[in-house]
């Protein structure tokens, strides 16, 4: 009877240890992650986008970056394309600056 109780106790402790180490590993994997999201919006001059990090506004872009003047994107799809490019640069620790060459490669009308 005592041996049976010890077996159950050791099994429960092993199960708790396994669960604890598993949760600790998952926490370490996600601890440094930043949630990045994109929202497009319509303006009087076209389309723009906002980039949020951890639900806080990080970039508010009403106009086409790198282009002359204050012109918005012609369509929501164009704003979404450049917004996704900015997010990709942020994820790879690059400075999220868009060049004229990148606008041209994405076929953005400016």
Cα-atom radius of gyration: 24 Å
- Strand-and-helix sequence, N→C? HEEEHH
Placed side by side, the strands forming the largest sheet appear as 1-2-3
Low-confidence stretches: none
What fraction of residues sit in β-strands?
A: 15-25%
How would you characterize the largest beta sheet? 3 strands, antiparallel
Total of domains = 2
Amount of helix: 40-55%
Counting DSSP E segments of at least 2 residues, the number of strands comes to 3
Shape: rod-shaped
Mean pLDDT: 83
Distance, first to last CA: 82 Å
Q: Helix/strand-derived class?
A: alpha+beta
Short description:
The chain is α+β, with helices and mostly antiparallel strands and 110 residues long. It has 3 helices and 3 strands. The protein has helices at 2-31, 76-91, 100-105; strands at 36-43, 46-53, 56-61.
If you had to describe this structure to a student in words, what would you say it looks like?
With 110 residues, the protein is α+β, with helices and mostly antiparallel strands. It has 2 domains: 32 residues; 70 residues, no CATH class. The chain is 47% helix and 20% strand. Strands 1-2-3 form a 3-stranded antiparallel sheet, covered by helices on one side. A hairpin with a 2-residue loop joins β1 and β2.
Outline the secondary-structure elements:
Blueprint: H1 2-31, E1 36-43, E2 46-53, E3 56-61, H2 76-91, H3 100-105
